[in-house]
Amino acid sequence: MKVIRWVLGQIILILDFLTSPKAVVREAEEQRAIDDVTASMSMYQFKTCPFCVKVRRELKRHALHIELRDAKNDAELKAELVREGGRHKVPCLRIEKPDNSVQWLYESNDIIAYLKNQFNLA
Fold first, then answer.
1. Burial code of 65-90, b = ≥16 C-beta within 10 A, e = fewer?
2. Number of helices and strands (H, E) in the chain?
3. What is the pTM of this model?
């Protein structure tokens, strides 16, 4: 089973590479404003998770620079995800709010919808 997962993971990564979306280009000031907001976000993910790939493609498409955290190969990040987010499930977007609270958002579709709403993206 491990071999099958590895092979499928490699296929996912190859297809993602071959069909990678082109990033939107914005005015420098507009991009800087978006980068200021995304600096308070991070996404816990696995490299070969198809749902994580889906979110990463949207991040690239919309030029959203969000820190990616490998919750599979980094034991500290995995523990942080479980301890603070409540479960070991990816993708998970960690959002630090202006009032210092933290929101943990799971599910690829919910993450994408949140980001599109937050930044008024099409």
1. ebeebebbeeeebbeebeeebeeebb
2. 5, 4
3. 0.91
Distance CA 120, CA 107 (A): 20
| Cβ atoms 65, 38 nearer than 8 A | yes
Residue with tokens 């296929």: 11
Q: What is the pLDDT of residues 77-93, one digit of tens each?
A: 999 999 999 999 999 99
CB atoms within 10 A of CB 111: 24
Beta-sheet pairing, 92-96 with 102-106: antiparallel
The mean pLDDT values, 10 residues at a time, for the chain of 122 residues are: 91 93 95 97 96 97 97 94 95 96 97 96 82
At residue 105, the 3 state secondary structure works out as strand
H-type helices in the chain, by residue range? 2-18, 28-38, 50-61, 75-80, 108-119
* Residue tagged 């799971």 (tokens): 106
| 61 vs 105: CA distance, rounded Å | 20
